[in-house]
Design a protein that fits this description.
The protein is of the alpha/beta class. Helix content is 25%, strand content 15%. It has 9 helices and 10 strands.
Length: 276
């Protein structure tokens, strides 16, 4: 990623430390991208170091993530773990799941503390006031749809054909990554977010609102209230938010696009998105 000097840099054409599999370690070996570090201000809550942003971005009415909300995570790779750590640090409950069973998450749950627990994917989805789907894209049709009905679902996935195999509709531009998840979850409100940031940067690049050069993250979705909920969470985690528009516009920050990867301010991110 770009260095913390906030310069706009065209990202690598590979996946790097981004999501798509739930974390960088599972991305293809060819998907290595350089990553910079951002400064943040530490605060302590529930014995976990957190970085907070307490003012709204551009005075937009994002609202607030409900206090002590439960966030269900379907997938617990690097991105999922990074989101879980920030969520716990800000006082939210998290219910983690993976494909191997909740017992394999015991060490992670222990490290996260009393606000964390593990369950099956269906249980995590049912428990969450907000649900994060962070699995390899090729497995998106395995996500349990019924427990997620009516819920806001954050899609962090990226399409890596090297790992996922080819999906002709995506290759041809007829479909989008998050659009295909939304088609699988017709009763959910899918918002694309956290797919263009490296897992460590979710903590390292966070900063209080108003910090000069504060990093911004894009979101896209078709439900306005769902986007407000996700934007409030991102703001709470320590980032500005740029609403790109409908879910289909999420293609503007997919892999290989200018908005994918670099550490950008809100204005720089808008410029990169316009190029997508």
């Amino acid at each position: 990623m770009a260095a913390a000097t906030e310069r706009a840099v065209k990202p690598s054409t590979t996946a790097g430390r981004h999501c798509g599999s739930g974390g960088p370690s599972a991305a293809p070996a060819a998907a290595g991208a350089a990553r910079g570090r951002g400064a943040g201000t530490g605060a302590v809550r529930t014995n976990v170091t957190a970085v907070r942003g307490d003012r709204r971005f551009s005075a937009r009415p994002w609202g607030r993530t409900p206090s002590m909300a439960t966030i269900g995570l379907i997938g617990s790779g690097n991105i999922g773990q990074a989101i879980a750590r920030q969520a716990v640090a800000h006082g939210h409950h998290v219910v983690l799941s993976n494909s191997r069973g909740p017992e394999t998450l015991a060490d992670l749950v222990s490290a996260l503390g009393p606000l964390a627990s593990a369950a099956t994917a269906a249980e995590a989805g049912a428990s969450g006031d907000l649900v994060v789907v962070t699995v390899p894209f090729k497995n998106h049709t395995r996500i349990p749809a019924e427990p997620l009905g009516g819920k806001t679902v954050i899609d962090t996935n990226n399409y890596y054909f090297e790992r996922d195999g080819h999906f002709p509709d995506i290759d041809s531009g007829q479909a989008t990554v998050s659009g295909m998840l939304a088609a699988h979850l017709p009763d959910s409100k899918v918002v694309k977010a956290f797919n263009n940031i490296a897992a460590p940067a979710i903590a390292e690049d966070a900063a209080p609102a108003g910090t000069p050069g504060r990093r911004a993250l894009p979101i896209a979705g078709d439900d306005a209230e769902a986007k407000k909920t996700v934007a409030a969470l991102i703001e709470e985690f320590g980032f500005d938010v740029v609403d790109v528009g409908p879910l289909v516009e999420g293609r503007r920050f997919d892999r290989d696009k200018p908005a994918y990867g670099p550490r950008l301010t809100a204005d720089q991110l808008r410029e990169a998105l316009a190029q997508g």
